[in-house]
Amino acid sequence: MALSKKPVTGMKDILPEEMEIRDYVISVIKETYASYGFTSMETPCVENIANLNCKAGGENEKLIFKILKRGEKLRLAEAESEGDLVDGGLRYDLTVPLVRYYSNHANELPSPFKALQIGNVWRADRPQRGRYRQFMQCDIDILGEASNLAEIELILATTTTLGKLGFKDFQIRINDRQILKAMASYSGFSEDDYDNVFIILDKMDKIGLEGVQAELLEAGYTNAQVEKYLGLFRDMEASEDAVAYIMDVLADILPEGVREGFQEIIESVEATKGDFFELRFDPTLVRGMSYYTGTIFEIAMPEFGGSCGGGGRYDKMVGKFTGNDVAACGFSIGFERIILLLTESGFQVPKAGKKIAYLMEKGIPADMLCKVLAQAQKEREEGNQILVARMNKNKKFQKEQLTAQGYEDFKEFYKEPLK
Prior knowledge:
eight-stranded mixed β-sheet, alpha/beta, 39% helix
């Protein structure tokens, strides 16, 4: 039986043309984030299964690729539950590993710690356009900064990066978990109901207000609760200033400082940002991860028709490892979706020099080969990208392939001068 030459479902091979774009995007990301003071770090792809199942990852905890115990520890015949067989798993995001990393190395790290982490993660999800079971994430996080400076810096650094990659007219949608909870409390929902209410609210962009209303009633909530809750969204939509309206309504419920902090983030970003994106308050924004405690944000791109990244504040996660809470906030770019959009748009990596192909006829003598290689080396030192290759029999087809790869000039070398 022949071996399968296709990758595992939900994972993909990356061809050179896409790899060139990926390498370029990573270089832009690293350079831009470094200019904001973020430093690169890395964590293992495998985490302790207890860390991955710490009730912080929301629905993603159902999608973990689990790893069996090894050697003598794996006792299949004696196993009574999954816990007897599994002790590790592939990470499903970069945040849980980062928090473990910070908890382990806090004394060796600066405060605040501005981290940049780029790496693959794995989820046993249903593959679809822009979604894979193995995919790269790109996160920036600030740990140890309790003020709104963290949110402001994260938004500005992320949007600057997207702008350098040529993206325009996208939105940064922003909300706050404390506003979400206050709205639910104001409407008469109990705290135990919040997660279920938010799961339904998160479908607003797909099923609309009427769909959310129907699902809330079907879930057993009273008509009075549902009407009061959805009335807030209707009134905000009709208001000239939705943020001011909801802050006034919830003035007696919101924790102290939430209003001032949220408005400071919006005003600071608006005063600093360029005209290539819009910052928009979205009271329906939920974000799936249950570890978020405050501000949440998401990137919405019209070209994709969905989210291309997001993040928020998670001030309680470090405490799960150390017993002491540390302020933390992060923003993740949807790397694979960004690559998809660039690839589909025909994006070409900018080149400082030319891409030139040196094509040599087979049988060129050694002294001529040395001259060709020396000349190629000299052109590389001048900033050009030089490919040295043997000339194929079908030279025309070879040139067509190289042209498709971005080569704009050809130099041909023959073992004997052409007549």
